[in-house]
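A common beginner's mistake is to predict each chain separately and then try to dock the pieces by hand. The better habit, illustrated here, is to supply every component at once so that their relative placement is modeled jointly.
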Amino acid sequence: MMSTFSGIELGKKGLVTHQAAIHVTGHNVANAETEGYSRQKVTLEVFDPLYIPGLTRENTPGQIGQGVAVEKILRARDMLLEDRILSEKNGLFYWKSLSDWIYQVELIHNEPSDKSIMNTLDKFWAAWQDLANNPEEIGSREAVREYGWALARHINYNYQALKSLRDNIERAVQMRVEEINDIAKQIAKLNEQILRVEATGDNPNDLWDKRDLLVEKLSGYVDIHIGRSDQDEFMVYIGGKHLVQGKHFEQLMLIRNPYNEGYSDIHWAVDGSPLKLLSGELKAHLDARDVELKYQIDSLDRFAASLMDLVNSVHRKGFGLNLRTGLDFFMEKPVTANPLGDYDFNRDGFVDGTAVFRITGTHTLNPDDVVGLEGVIRLGEGAEVAYTATDTVGELLTRVNNAESDVKMHLNIEGRLVVRSDTPALAIEHLEDSGDFLVQYSGILRNRGDEGAFDQGQIGMAQRISENFMITPFNHPASWIRLDENIANEVESIAAATGTDTNGDGVPDLSMGAGNGDNALGIAGIRFQKIMIGGSETLNEYYGALIAGTGLRGESSQSENMNRDLIVENLENLRKSISGVNIDEELVNLVKFQHGYAAAARFITKVDEMLDLLINRML
Amino acid sequence: MIRVSSNMMGDNLINISKRNTERMLGLQNNIATGIKHRVPRENPIGVSHSITYDRILFELGQFEKNVDDGKSRLNVAETALANATDILQRVRELGIQGANGIYTKEDRAKIATEIDQLLNELVHIANTQYKGRTVFAGNDTLENPFKATRTYSKYAGKEVIQQVDYLGDMGPQNREISRGSIAAINVPGNEVFWAERSSLFSSINATNYVLPADSRVRINGVTIQFKAGDNIEMIVNRINNAPVPVRASVNRMNGGIILETSSARAIMVEDIEGSTLMQDIGVISGRNAPQNLSPTARTFGGNIFDMVMRIRDSLYMDDAEDVGSRAIGGVDLAIENILKYRTELGARANRLDMIKARIIQDRTNMEDILSKNEDVDLAEAITNLRMLELVHRSALGVTARVIQPTLLDFLR
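With all components supplied together, the output reads:
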């Protein structure tokens, strides 16, 4: 025998359940456009029917259903799809970021246009040609000075722009690290709240959504790995170390790196170990800052240093209208005031090495001459070039330039051997010859073998090399390149004419005359000399290759960006398909549950009428 | 069957629309600037080519400027030489006239005076300037190359030019007319305005002379290398083997060296890089060329001014026979030498013309290549733009129709 009010109970359950279902539908509709929201579904189940077999069982046919109840509220979310999106987003953000930074570099280069460094360089060479056409004129000299200034200023400007960009990236790194630390904190807090809700058996759908949203944001910045295996401890790993473990979280910290111009490296705050990153926006920032932009600045410095050295070498041999000779055109600022190049490399207050950028030999060579000597040239760790008597000078130089070292050699316009460092530090590291090629043949070193070797790490090395050498220029020549004061103050000092050596000391001392422009032609001719990268490129070609290389990297990063964008878009569409709210669907559900609610209400009314009959109308 | 959530269609349109508008923006930029690529990433190889072609075009422009400048200077020199030739022809005429026996001493004196005027004019022409700089002075362009010294002549009864010296040098004025190709566009006065071959007889006996150290000497602009231990025979050999129009020999009479030019020009000798060779054997006396010939050496060989002075002085001295023979012959030599140089200048001018024509051709070609490389094909770009616009509008239209109706519109 059922209880009197079991009908009302049944109706009540129907009402409440359908009300809950309508509520959830309303929740879905309200959050249709909320970011990261996954639609929630109500699962209805049949309430436990009567009678459960037992001694107190009523002896009537059963079981009689007792109505409906909400079993659970689920959110529609595919976790496997989630993980895929996380890893793809990681790659997308890397390429998007990198592509944007490279784009900014391309804008600095400003090619193709008529306002790039290439154009200023053109005008510089042209000014020397015009001077050669009118060597007696003050006007042509003033033009040379003006275009020299313009070129120096343009190089300065590009350097400043690149440096600012690098500083901007540093700021972006700092901001992101702060944000990552904050997100870690938030995820840990959410983990705590979620755990408490899960412990009661409920589904914290909205908290899960919130956490998933934070995790997705994080995945754009760093390449994370999610550990869901332990229900009680939600783990977020970066590079093998955990950032969040349940309600515990770690923090990242920034440590300035003095060997990287004070830019910050990212470390774990807990033990100071470096953060290992493979992809993501943060990695893109670091790659852009420490690889791409460093390369750009180093290349510009190398360009400036070589330009200064070449122009000055020719200019010093010429004579101005005022008969002055031996003057530099561009101001030289060596890294140390010591004329022998002794320098304190490790900044500990004591000189510990010799800083030399370029050495020029004393003898004139011909690339087709057979060397006729044999030996081994050592340029540093693992860079040894052997030569035999049948090698030509040209072949030997090619081998040297292809060796794994930053020391490059080429023959200058007079046929003398020029040894130059291609390192960003612009200092030759090691030079040694067991034979006579670098010693007697070309006049670079004074002695063979170990005793005659030039090594950056020892002081006093200037005695072991030819007298014609250039000390490493002060840090970042592109930032300070400018005209020498003598030239800036007195244009008559610009050396257009060549001269003769009358007194036999090897240095020209008598000008050819005011009408001679051969030295100006010599400087203009630098344009065509292959002096970069060990004699394979001219200054123009070197800079042009820099721009083209940047463009290629820009093109490829942009195309990677676009590809991944499409992939992520498709994945997100798939997710929307699964988790997104469809208004029409919800409206139909609304109607359905509304009918259900109305029917349940009508049922209650009927039961109520029956009870009314029973209570009030029966005698 | 795929389930489509409500925001999918709207988001889809946003993404597609983003891509379309980005492409339209790119095309709009291309059409507005006329250039296919704005930044290197749009076409790295194309940009690299653009950079190279731009450089070449700029160079060609500069070379054209250099050629034009060279041509102007050559023209000025040519005009001066033409004028000089005219004057020398007139002097010749007057000379022939004066040699005629019927003239009196006074008549000859009048002719001589006219020739003297022409001589002044000739010096003036030799000191021709272009843009304020002298043309025939080699590299010493701030000064007049020829200096005329006036002294009293008792035959003329007044001060007349009695000596014209060359003070310039032999330096070339070089112009770069194409990559690595240098052309000299001047002729030094001590070559073109000379009439006779020059010779120098040293009076120092060099039979036992041995060169103490390696030396370098510059003769007429060409550097010659001598080795320690050379005796006079070897020195003579080296000079004769050098590419300079000066022949050396040993004077059998006094053991001194003889230097002779092989055509009408002056001799210019300089010891360089600390050498003392030419001073030791009595050719020069240490001062800077060209005023450095040793006073102990005997020198012969006159310039065109000397030739004109000879006719004038012969007329002043009433020596008709000398005028008619030697003097006129001298002027003939002068005219012949100048003619030689006019021909050469003409050849150089022709060469410059040919180079200029080629430069112009190269420029046209290069501009064409550059244009193909970077100029937008407007027709193509505009067509693409219109198509994109059409696609864009269709996308917008379709989405508008599809995202609007929901069930709500139909429920009562």
